[in-house]
Amino acid sequence: MNGRDRFLAALHGHNHSGRPPVWLMRQAGRYLPEYRALKEEHSFRTLVQTPDLATEVTLQPLRRFPGLDAAILFSDILVIPEALGVPYRFREEGGIELERTVRSAQDLATLHPTGVADRLHYVGEALRSVRSALDGTRALLGFCGAPWTLALYLVEGGSPGEGNRLRRWLYEDPSSARALLHTVAGACTEYARLLEASGADAIQVFDSWAGLCPAPLYEELCLEILQPLLEAVSVPVLLFSRGAGNRLPAQQALGTRALALDWQTPLPESRQLLGPDTTLQGNLDPLLLTTSPPRSRPTPAPCSTPSPTTRPGSSTRATGSPHRHASTASTPSSTPSGTEQRAGRTPRDSGASPETSPGKTWGTARARAPPRETSGFRGSLRKRGRGCESGWLCRGEGGRLAESQCLS
Q: What architecture is domain 24-64+72-286+316-352?
């Protein structure tokens, strides 16, 4: 069973290969010296928008880590706002900035929702190039931001913070605020069709700032709004709704093929809450990958029953910026939503390197590990979600922690 077969089998609840499929949300990027060499010659946006370069960056981690089962296209969730007419750039001091904001019905009228897929043709070209290079050996993931998260970027003009402007807009002028969300949702749906048509085996939807959505509006603005996208594609869709681990049953009801858990949502309780038929992935604390190789493969304490004080599916929003994806240089240093700083990592495109900033760039432990340690990522699957108290997935025989986005 090759990586692609393993990944797709796990997505459909049939994983009989002895281990789960493994991939990382930001497995390409600046922790790799070969990426840094390219970055000296090209800007981040040039890498994203040039199919040959995006292909090369996407494939770099697969060459270094043969145990990875999937490639996730090197790109960024902010390509959709850019296609709508709001370009983004990186600040010299770190972080992301959009060229302008959308904060009123008048601003909304300046967006260009027609022809989004045409303006993102370079993404389709890169996907086709990567798929050809993979030759069926590994799964190929496309991704897009969720409407709620992308709307936050458009309204805030950069890292959303607490999302106060969009929330206030929803309270004071709910009609136009919802119009923005549905405009973005339409662009996401068109983009998802492009990803599928260009060869993506699955699509990951990153709702990196879902935890900022007001609780009474979460199902409407974070879940129901995705229904047209789910109906528009036939490939599996995986939903990462960061900071919303307390809404897992509602996420399950949406009907995506898999749910991705953030590192603060415990696996055992999530499996117990959702039952055996929903595929789960994730939950690894990304900070673990910035430690030394011995510490990134610890032997966990014996598995035990979760504390009765832990409410199944509970989760709190992580500090730092969420994770805007791209398998990019902004590695999870900007997880969940991309370029922002998160969980002890350096800001995207800050120029930091594993050699000069040990423990600050995602994946440093992997990139610097000795040959025996870098022979591939390993993880293990427990169909019923049994795990140690931390919620990480445990190996059945060796006790090692799962080391990435493992599908369960």
A: Alpha-Beta Barrel (3.20)
Give 50-55's long-range contacts (Cβ < 8 A, gap of 24+).
Answer: 50/122, 51/122, 51/125, 51/126, 51/129, 52/129, 54/122, 54/126, 54/129, 54/130, 55/126, 55/129, 55/130, 55/133
Which amino acid, one-letter code, is at 4? R
| Residue 208 token pair | 């990196």
Give whole-number Cα distances, 104 to 81, 148, 175, in Å.
Answer: 16, 16, 11
C-beta of residue 346 within 8 angstroms of C-beta of residue 360: yes
Please compute the mean of the pLDDT values over residues 227-242 and round it to a whole number: 98
Give per-residue pLDDT as tens, 326-362.
332 223 333 333 333 333 333 333 333 333 333 322 2
Tens digits of residue pLDDT in 296-317:
775 554 444 444 443 333 333 3
> Burial level of 347, CB count in 10 A (0-12/13-18/19+)?
buried
pTM exceeds 0.70 = yes
